[in-house]
Each structure stands twice: as structure tokens, then as C-alpha cells.
Write a structure and sequence with these properties.
The chain is mostly helical. The chain folds into two domains: 381 residues, Up-down Bundle (Growth Hormone, Chain: A); 56 residues. It is 81% helix and 0% strand. It is built from 16 helices and no strands. The longest helix is centred in the first third of the chain and has 39 residues. The radius of gyration is 21 Å and the shape is globular. The relative contact order is 0.14.
């Protein structure tokens, strides 16, 4: 009955959004705690970076496998399993007294997140019929993701300042375990993919190695140097495994990623937009944090508060975005949001050298563009796809965004450092110019998608 279905669907969505918020929050909440972790555990700067890098490699490398596992083994089952793994790894990280244990816990935490993220997104895209209902649900998902990323900066600063760095890990534990406990009661599982229910193990190993090595090479390029034998070797092996994966998938009877899927224009455009979004978002957050603390000499808490309007605007867009999409179309909306992000970054190329400036309010425009691009990329990628592939679609979208974030987090700070040579504001302005180019490229992709989607008019009869 409609009256019974609505509360179940509402409960499903609420729980999925809580889990999505927790996973996204963990991206940025730990960054604020790195200096405290470095001091208390007596870690070298290169070593403490692995607290972030280990999570990024495991998360990015396992997303596609996690998405396909959700399709084959059950989305609710994998969602619950991922929450448990994520929560227990958070507990281990919060209690760690040894750097090796902390880094290992972060790797396992990333693996848990790689199971939760695509399962959560596919539970939305299969639990809501294609159309306004699904668009509204994806809008809320994008809103929670936007506010969660920025909330991590603020909450991390509060927790570290008032308690200890351990709190940024332990805060996940009760939320994750309670969510896993009540998931069987609230989430109605969707049908699994019919067939043998066997994962393409060879394809899974190859794509995991490809993405993990690519993320490693990009994230460590600034650490070891781009011409370092380690970075070059990782890039070469990633290329070889990518070629091997492509060949293996064309010959496997039940491939992890069917080659024909990439012929879907919506999926191609969605993954391209997710990559560009990750590039500017991952790089901008890090560069703005460094700029506010190293140039303006603000505290971590004030830094988070300055960036917070970006998340607030992103959350607001998540609520209003579906209505805007109905009026102007998702692809046209993507053109507008990409252009808004590009304009915001263009203004930030005039970052002040001292003191707070109204120029920094442009993070609100970037928040609008970021949330809109995140929302729209998911909608166009999942539209028209079979339910049996929605977990994989979620994995591909998240993988593209994660690789983009790794590229942005390495590229934009490297630009800032090379231009300013360790001092001044010119490097940060140059980094914002690079982000402007990424947002303009996303606008061009959206413009092309919008033109391609226009119906061809038949000529008038003679």
C-alpha cells in the first residue's frame, strides 16, 4: 500500500544518507588531525601522509569491485558488511599506539568505504523508479556528500582542539555499528543479478591493481618526485594492467565490466564529469586549507569555518537541484553549474595576500557548481542503465571522482609550491587558475552532452 511503502522508502533513504555522510566526512576530518598524529606518534612527515594515502589507495582501488559485488551478492548485504568493516577499522585507528597499526587500520577503513559507497548509491538508484523520485533521492545524496566533505574540516578542527586526534576516528564507531544493526529492518534488499553469482576474479585483481597504482603514482608524485623510479614504475605497471584488464574483459564470459557499457553516452559523460569534479574539489579543499593557514595564518577551526559556506550552499542545492533539473533539464543544469564553478575559481585567482576578503565568499559559488556537477553526473550516468548494473555504475562514478581527487590533491598544491617557491600568494592564485580550467572543461563536456541529447527535427514535408 502507498502509505506503508512511503515510510519504508523514507527510512531506507535516511539510513543510506547517514552512511554516505559518514564515509564522505572521513575524507576531510582526518586531514585536520595529521599534525597532532605526527607529534604524538613521532611519525615523519612522509610517513604520516600514508594515513591519507593508504585510505585513498584502498578506497579508489576497490570501488569497482565493491560495486559489482553489490550487484552479484546483494546490495543490502554488502552495505552492512562495509559498514561493519569501516566501523571496526575506525575503532582500531582510534586506539592505535603504533604508526604501522594506524596506517593498516586506514587501509582497511578505505576498503570498507569502497564497499559502502557503491552499495549505498545503487540502493538509491534501484530503490527509486527512474524519474522525479530517483532524481530527488540523488539530489539528497549529493547534498549530504557536499556538506559532509566540508563538515569534516569543521568537525575535525573542533574535535582535535577540544579532545584528541583519536576522536576523529572514534566518532565513526557508534554511528556505523548502529546503522549496520538497524539496516536489516529499514532497508529492503533489491534483487541480485541473475546468473552464476561468480565474480570475475582476474578482472577484479587487474582493475584493482590499475586504480591503486594510478592513485599511488599521482598521490606520491610530489612526495618522491615525478621522475622518481618508484613513481614511474607504478605508472608503467598501472598502464600494463589497464591494457591487460581491457583485453581480459573482452574474452571473459561474465566480465566485471562489460565492454559495451562504455558505449553508453550517459555513463561516459558522467564518469568524465565525476573525474573533473574530483580534480577541482580535491585540489581546492587542500589548497584553500594551506592558503588560509600558511598565508593568512588562521587556525584549523577558523579555516573550516571559512570553507563551511561551500558545504551549506551545496546542501541547499541538493534540496533545490531536482526542481531546477525538471525545469531546465539535467544536462543544461550541468552547463550552468560547471560555469558557476569556473567563475568562482576565476575570482579566486585574485586571492588576497593578507586578511579576510569578500573574495573568499566565492567558495559559495564553487559549492553550487560542485554540488550540481556531483548530482548531475550521477543522474546521467545511471539513467537508462539496468538495475543489474547499478552497483557497477556507482563504483565507476566513485572511482572516477576518487582518481580525479588524487590528481587534484597532487597537482594543485604542486602548482602552488612551484610558482610561489614556498612563500607568497602567487602560487595559490595559479592553483585556482588550474581549477578554473578543470571547471571550464567540465562545462564543455556538459555542453556537448546537452547538444547531443537534443532531438533531431525532421524536415518539413515538401
Amino acid at each position: 500500500m502507498p502509505t506503508a511503502a512511503a515510510p519504508n522508502r523514507t527510512g531506507n533513504l535516511a539510513l543510506i544518507l547517514v552512511a554516505a555522510f559518514m564515509v564522505v566526512l572521513d575524507f576531510s576530518i582526518v586531514n585536520v588531525a595529521l599534525p597532532s598524529i605526527e607529534r604524538e606518534l613521532s611519525m615523519a612527515q612522509a610517513q604520516v601522509q600514508w594515513v591519507v594515502t593508504g585510505y585513498a589507495i584502498a578506497f579508489g582501488g576497490l570501488l569497482i569491485l565493491g560495486g559489482r559485488a553489490a550487484d552479484l551478492l546483494g546490495r543490502r548485504r554488502m552495505f552492512i558488511l562495509g559498514l561493519i568493516v569501516f566501523s571496526l577499522a575506525s575503532l582500531a585507528g582510534g586506539l592505535a599506539q603504533d604508526p604501522v597499526l594506524l596506517i593498516a587500520a586506514r587501509v582497511i577503513q578505505g576498503a570498507g568505504a569502497a564497499i559502502v559507497a557503491p552499495a549505498a548509491l545503487s540502493l538509491i538508484t534501484t530503490g527509486f523508479p527512474e524519474g522525479p523520485a530517483r532524481t530527488r533521492a540523488i539530489g539528497l545524496y549529493g547534498a549530504i556528500s557536499s556538506v559532509g566533505f566540508v563538515a569534516g574540516q569543521v568537525l575535525g578542527g573542533v574535535l582535535v582542539q577540544l579532545t584528541s586526534w583519536r576522536a576523529v576516528f572514534l566518532v565513526n564507531v557508534p554511528v556505523g555499528l548502529v546503522a549496520a544493526a538497524i539496516a536489516p529492518m529499514l532497508i529492503h534488499d533489491t534483487p541480485r543479478t541473475t546468473g552464476s553469482h561468480k565474480l570475475d576474479i582476474r578482472g577484479a585483481l587487474l582493475i584493482t591493481a590499475t586504480v591503486a597504482l594510478a592513485v599511488f603514482a599521482v598521490s606520491q608524485g610530489t612526495q618522491f618526485g615525478w621522475t622518481s623510479p618508484v613513481v614511474i614504475a607504478a605508472a608503467i605497471v598501472a598502464t600494463v594492467t589497464a591494457v591487460a584488464f581491457t583485453r581480459a574483459e573482452t574474452r571473459h564470459p561474465e566480465p566485471l565490466v562489460r565492454p559495451g557499457l562504455m558505449h553508453k553516452q550517459g555513463l561516459r559523460n558522467g564518469t568524465a564529469l565525476a573525474f573533473l569534479l574530483g580534480l577541482w574539489n580535491g585540489g581546492e579543499m587542500l589548497v584553500m586549507s594551506l592558503y588560509l593557514q600558511q598565508v593568512l595564518h588562521e587556525s584549523p577551526l577558523i579555516t573550516g569555518l571559512v570553507i563551511a559556506p561551500q558545504g551549506i550552499v551545496g546542501f541547499t542545492f541538493g534540496l533545490l537541484g531536482p526542481r531546477m533539473a525538471r525545469r531546465m533539464g539535467v544536462r543544461r543544469l550541468l552547463v550552468v553549474t560547471g560555469a558557476a564553478a569556473a567563475l568562482g575559481f576565476a575570482v579566486l585567482t585574485r586571492l588576497p595576500a593578507v586578511g579576510y576578503s569578500p573574495v573568499l565568499l566565492m567558495v559559495m559559488l564553487i559549492g553550487f557548481g560542485t554540488a550540481g556537477t556531483a548530482f548531475g553526473s550521477i543522474v546521467i550516468a545511471s539513467r537508462g542503465m539496468a538495475d543489474a548494473d547499478q552497483g557497477l555504475v556507482g563504483g565507476m562514478i566513485n572511482t572516477s571522482r576518487q582518481i580525479g581527487a588524487a590528481v587534484g590533491a597532487a597537482l594543485l598544491p604542486a602548482i602552488a609550491e612551484s610558482v610561489s617557491h614556498g612563500g607568497g600568494v602567487s602560487g595559490y592564485r595559479a592553483a585556482m587558475f588550474a581549477a578554473t580550467l578543470a571547471a571550464l572543461l567540465a562545462t564543455a563536456v556538459a555542453w556537448h552532452a546537452a547538444r547531443a541529447a537534443q532531438p533531431v527535427r525532421s524536415p518539413a514535408p515538401a
